[in-house]
């Protein structure tokens, strides 16, 4: 039936399937990249907080800051900022 009246449409159907496959692959790629970027952001945030606490502990150990200032800064660094 594809070749009726000189219409050779058989290869067009393959292009449609190829286009659909490309669209599905792009959607999956976008979803994976989005999920990975969220987890990377979370781990970077944890790493920066850990590094800041390490520096704060070192400064307190060297007696560069008071206990009150240490506790205040530690509380500020560890509080949940997802609000």
From TrEMBL:
<dbReference type="Pfam" id="PF09851">
    <property type="entry name" value="SHOCT"/>
</dbReference>
<feature type="transmembrane region" description="Helical">
    <location>
        <begin position="12"/>
        <end position="32"/>
    </location>
</feature>
<feature type="domain" description="SHOCT">
    <location>
        <begin position="51"/>
        <end position="77"/>
    </location>
</feature>
<protein>
    <submittedName>
        <fullName>SHOCT domain-containing protein</fullName>
    </submittedName>
</protein>
<keyword id="KW-0812">Transmembrane</keyword>
<keyword id="KW-0472">Membrane</keyword>
<keyword id="KW-1133">Transmembrane helix</keyword>
<dbReference type="InterPro" id="IPR018649">
    <property type="entry name" value="SHOCT"/>
</dbReference>
């Amino acid at each position: 039936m594809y070749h009726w009246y000189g219409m050779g449409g058989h290869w067009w159907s393959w292009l449609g399937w190829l286009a659909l496959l490309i669209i599905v692959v792009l959607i999956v790629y976008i979803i994976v990249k989005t999920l990975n970027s969220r987890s990377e952001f979370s781990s970077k945030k944890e790493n920066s907080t850990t590094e800041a606490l390490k520096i704060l502990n070192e400064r307190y150990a060297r007696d560069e800051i008071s206990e009150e200032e240490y506790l205040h800064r530690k509380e500020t660094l560890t509080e949940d900022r997802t609000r």
